[in-house]
Design goal:
Layout (H helix, E strand, L loop, with lengths): L3 E2 L9 E7 L2 E6 L8 E5 L2 E8 L4 E6 L2 E2 L3 E4 H7 L4 E3 L4 H20 L1
Parallel strand pairs: 3-9
Antiparallel strand pairs: 1-9, 2-3, 2-8, 4-5, 5-6, 6-7
C-alpha cells in the first residue's frame, strides 16, 4: 500500500478519485491504483476502492453499498478540499516542479 500524505500533491492536470466523508477527504492518484481492490479509511470509515484501468472505471464500497466518489482533476478537488490527504505515489521530479511553480508564483505576487 502507498502512504497517504497531505504534502505530496499531484500535478494540477492529473486526474484522480476524490472521496469526502465526515469532514475528512482523500484524493487517490488513479495511476497509482493497482488492479486489485485497495482498502482506505476516510472519515473513520473503511472503504474498498476497485479500479479497472482497462475499462477506466472506479467503484468505492462500504460493505455491499456503493458510495459517491468523484473522478476529477487535482486542481478542482483541492479547491474544495484544501486539507485533503493524497493516496498514491508522486515522483520527486513532480514535487520539484511544483515547488518551483510555487516559488515563481510567490515572487510574482510579491512584485505587485
Amino acid at each position: 500500500m502507498f502512504p497517504v500524505s497531505p504534502r505530496r500533491s499531484p500535478s494540477p492536470q492529473r486526474t484522480g478519485l476524490g472521496i469526502a466523508r465526515n469532514k475528512d477527504s482523500l484524493a487517490i492518484v488513479l495511476s497509482a491504483l493497482p488492479q486489485s481492490p485497495v482498502t482506505v479509511e476516510v472519515g473513520g470509515t473503511r472503504l474498498v476502492v476497485n479500479y479497472d484501468s482497462a475499462r477506466n472505471t472506479t467503484e468505492v464500497v462500504v460493505g455491499r453499498n456503493a458510495i459517491p466518489a468523484v473522478r476529477t482533476y487535482w486542481f478542482a478537488w483541492v479547491a474544495f478540499y484544501p486539507e485533503t490527504r493524497v493516496w498514491g505515489k508522486v515522483s520527486e521530479a513532480e514535487l520539484k516542479r511544483r515547488r518551483t511553480n510555487e516559488a515563481l508564483e510567490h515572487m510574482f505576487h510579491c512584485a505587485f
